[in-house]
Amino acid sequence: MISYSLNLWSKLTSPNIFRSLPVILPRGVISRFVVKFGLGVASSLVLSLAFNSHLMATPESSPVLSAPISQVSPVNPANPVNPPKNSTIRLLETVGLFVGGIVFCIVLDRWFSDRSAHAGSTPLAQQARRLKQLKIGYPEGMTNFEVLRSQALLEERLRPFGLIVTWTSFLSASALIEALSNGTIDFCGGGGTASIFSQAADHVFVRVAKEKYTAPKGQAILVPEDSPIQTLADLKGKKIAFDKGSSAHYILIRALRKVGLDFSDIDPIYLTQPQALPLFRQGEVDAWVVWVPYTPTQARSSYPGRSIADLESIFGDRASLEVPTYYYAVPELVRDYPDLLKVILEEVNEAGAWAKKQELEAAQRLLDQHEIDPFILETLQKRSAERAIIPIDEQSLDALQHQANLFRDLDLIPERVNVKDGTYSLQTKQNWTY
């Protein structure tokens, strides 16, 4: 029997058996076993030490240990292998503590495994694993996306689920929505005007949220520094460059109407901003309706010319309603990944809140140096406590529908569109502050 046991032990401890363990058992199972075994040994030692400390602290509780040596009975020669009674008890205690430690670690491991399994089976985790990759498109200079991307807020939130986030920049909101429609991206943000033209062109997308505030200086009508044009009324008969189907298109129409001019009173030059910039510098166009990004970039901070009108002078306090920034998603993201969409919008809102805080701090420094009006700081203080993005409501859709009707009346879109169509606009009371 002893010979058989020794042979078995030599086989179990041979290098081959250890090399084959990773094949027989998954690496994770082996790791968990080693950890639990180690914790069991450690727990047993701790408990054993605790019991030993107790025994040493109360020696009078053990008459065998406290008895004088002279009173200890000699060992019976007839029974030389019979151990003292207290040694048997200590052996049983040690074995019991060791087994108890192992059981404790198994129970603890089971509890953590259940919690991990529960976390991994949440709707968000399931949706993230199913999607695998989230593709986001953004226009350069859009504050919320710039912050979200630079600080990797979304990547950090979704990393535990193994979801990959990719970013692609686009020149215009219309290009973004077209990319949504053909499946190049899953989520984006941009001006609301572009969605009207995209809806009229039967592109596939859903408006899912909007920014609460539009920067009052976010778009402007520029003329060359030496231009004789001083007011909006001076634009009559002039060549004006702008991106067709963008918010600049709507801004120009409303600016002309403000001074009694019709769209037919000017010579429209349809160009994207990169195309318009060199022509404007060369004096080949008289004016340029341009989007000035919220976050300054090197290319756009060097725009030439001077402003004769901006959102604030054209729309007053209705600028955020008349020229909104929307967030868009593919229908599949809205339908099949609602928990994931909620997380995306939460992080967009978080990025916007961070940006407003930075803007407020910068304004405070300017105020301390007497370089800005205190009213500007007061406005920023009010907005800094509010959400960055809000759900789409009736009021915002009414304003967007007004735009759509205007473009149809001017024959700029082939037919009337209903922006309140649930296929294109998601109305919800969801709060994305968490």
From TrEMBL:
This is Putative aliphatic sulfonates-binding protein. GO terms for molecular function: ATPase-coupled transmembrane transporter activity. Keywords: Signal, Transport. The keyword Cell inner membrane does not apply. Residues 133-363 form the Solute-binding protein family 3/N-terminal domain. GO terms for cellular component: membrane; periplasmic space. InterPro entries: ABC_SsuA_sub-bd, Solute-binding_3/MltF_N, SsuA/THI5. PANTHER family: ALIPHATIC SULFONATES-BINDING PROTEIN-RELATED. Pfam families: NMT1. It is found in: Periplasm. It comes from Planktothrix paucivesiculata PCC 9631.
